[in-house]
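Researcher: I'd like a candidate sequence for this fold, 147 residues long. If you have to choose between options at a position, lean toward the conservative one.
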């Protein structure tokens, strides 16, 4: 990526990596996209300790990726819902899933199928040109630093 340094604190890759680059955080986001909302449900589906879960959920709320919404059970509790900022992470997780299925899966092929709700078509992740819509690889892109 040109002259961008790994330690550059303003790098648009290093900043999100510092926030999201921990396993439990990414798995929390995966579960949120799958519809998990309540603390107990995150804990039981992920088998994560209460302290780690509390810390990771707190960070995602603090960063504006999740928001807490009160609901009434026997007492007031909270659900965790994706914000617009959180929903914008969907392509990132889908790209990681696609890469993981290709390069790290113990069995060849995808781990599950995704389909567009409206037409039933399969879901894919690709980087495309904003001008001509051609699918791009790293070899097709030229980096021009702006700062």
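Model: Candidate sequence:
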């Amino acid at each position: 990526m040109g002259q961008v340094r790994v330690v550059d604190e303003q790098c648009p890759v290093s900043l999100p990596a510092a926030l999201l680059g921990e396993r439990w955080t990414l798995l929390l986001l995966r579960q949120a996209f799958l519809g998990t909302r309540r603390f107990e449900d995150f804990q039981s589906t992920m088998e994560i300790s209460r302290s780690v879960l509390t810390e990771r959920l707190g960070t995602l709320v603090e960063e504006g990726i999740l928001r807490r919404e009160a609901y009434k059970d026997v007492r007031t509790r909270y659900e965790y819902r994706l914000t617009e900022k959180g929903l914008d992470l969907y392509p990132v997780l889908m790209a990681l899933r696609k890469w993981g299925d290709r390069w790290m899966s113990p069995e060849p092929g995808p781990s599950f199928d995704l389909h567009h709700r409206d037409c039933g078509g399969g879901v894919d992740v690709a980087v495309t040109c904003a001008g001509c819509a051609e699918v791009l690889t790293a070899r097709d892109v030229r980096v021009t630093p702006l700062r």
